[in-house]
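User: Could you check the structure of this?
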Amino acid sequence: MTATTDDMTHGHVPVAQAAQPAAQAHGQQHPIKLYLLVWVLLFVLSACSYLVDYFDVQGYLRWFLIVVFMLLKAGLIVAVFMHMAWERLALVVAILMPPMAVLVLMAMMAWEGEYTKYLREFFFG
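Assistant: Sure, the predicted structure tokens are below.
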């Protein structure tokens, strides 16, 4: 069935155009290749995290690497599997800013704790 100019002027919609909104009602579909790529990246990051233990890395470098790999994996999961990469910026900021603020406050408390320990050792030890 093809649409003629007479059908268009009287408000008739061709069948092909009427089926488009029904197909779009299911939401946005993402290619399976993206999900497979993220799974591979998660596997590689997990392997790197285990290699830190395997090669017996010690000290601050060990914890830095473990935290970096953990944050990268969490970021991938949140961005792709929780669909945050396709959300509005306001929603992303509203969800991600409180944990970031907590991390900043934790870093400030750790720094203050080290400073207090230093002062106690300097004056009392």
